[in-house]
Amino acid sequence: MLTFWYNLFMITIEKEVKVNNENLIPEKSLFFDIETTGFSRAFSRIYLIGTLGKEDGKFVFRQFLTENRNEEKKLIETFLNLIKDYEKIISFNGDTFDFHFIKARAEKYNIDPDFSTFESIDILKKVKERSFFLELDNYKLKTLERYIGIFREDIFSGGELISLYYDYENGDKDLEGILLLHNEEDILNMPNLYSLKTLLEEKNRITLGDYEFNIEKISLGKAKLEVRGHSNLGPVFLTSSFGNLVIDSQNFVFTSLINQGDYDNTRKCLFIEKQNLSLSCNYRIKAPESIYLLKLDKKQLNLNIKSYFEETLKNLFKDI
Questions:
Q1: One domain for residues 38 and 187
Q2: Whole-number pLDDT of residue 320
Q3: Could you tell me the CA-to-CA distances from 155 to 151, 158, 239 in Å, in that order?
Q4: CB 3.0–4.6 Å: which of 14, 216, 273, 288 could bond 3 by disulfide?
Q5: What are the residue ranges of helices labelled H in 195-234?
Q6: 18-66: per-residue pLDDT in tens?
Q7: Contact (Cβ atoms closer than 8 angstroms) between residue 30 and residue 83
């Protein structure tokens, strides 16, 4: 059921929707996104907030659209009152942008927002921290959406909508649908983006029989590779000519000495000697058969690093 009404303060839309991956989304969680007239917290303002809340197994989508600058205070108050009912607040870049913007604008109206009552889950932050093996060109919202097969009807960016909002505010109400659609697609695509969390977990996991190794951090220096994460394996110290593996309290650290050399006249590379490891390059890069590239020029070859780590684990555990 769609509820759409105009009140004394702003336009409010509310409807129940169906979402994909609903079982992955925690109860009492709320997705949200804000639209602003610019990046300056001092001089720009929030004109639209969209939310999608999981409430008793159902998903309720809401939008709050201001028609003029005098409605921003009510918009912020409405949002802050709404989030009190949720345990997890999910956003895309919310920890860096949205929450700080809301706080600054709220303080303008002597409102003191309390963001300590819930867990903030920033999808962008999670992806940046763990997307070693996605091979993304960048972390823009539309890039991630395309990666998981989302293609928008909306053709505008948030920045492009600013001038349209001012036209809307000045009387061109035909632009209302365009403004709402952009925000609606941002919100309704978020549950699919949230599923990237599961995809990242799968791509970052190496399974050897009953043992699991979940990669959380990769550090590559000029002489040493270090891979960190957690495992279901108990305390272990294993060593070989390829590297060392230490597991303590289900946290593992794998370290391996690596080599540096000239790939050609202009580019440096980092590599290991293959020895008896069965390794195939995951990139269309030529190299001597006896070595395995881990970095070429400025590009870290994370898929190769994962393959090397996996083959080294097999070597370390072959006699166990």
A1: yes
A2: 62
A3: 10, 10, 54
A4: 14
A5: 196-203
A6: 998 888 899 999 999 999 999 999 999 999 999 999 988 899 999 999 9
A7: yes
Q: Are residues 215 and 191 in the same domain?
A: no
282 and 217, same structural domain?
A: yes
CA angle 178, 181, 184 (to 5 degrees): 155
Q: Give yes or no for residue 1 having a pLDDT over 60.
A: no
Evaluate whether 116 touches 89 at the Cβ level (below 8 Å): no
Same domain, 51 and 21: yes
Q: Mark whether 98 and 219 lie in a shared domain.
A: no
Q: Where in the sequence is the domain holding 185, given as residue range(s)?
A: 2-200
Q: With left for phi above 0 and alpha for psi between -120 and 50, is residue 188 left, alpha or beta?
A: alpha
**pTM for the model:** 0.86
Strand arrangement of the beta sheet that strand 268-273 belongs to? 259-262, 268-273, 291-296, 299-300
What is the rounded distance in angstroms from the CA atom of residue 11 to the CA atom of residue 65? 5
Task: Tell me what pLDDT residue 6 has.
Answer: 47
Could you give phi then psi for residue 69, rounded to 5 degrees?
A: -65, -25
29 and 119 part of one domain: yes
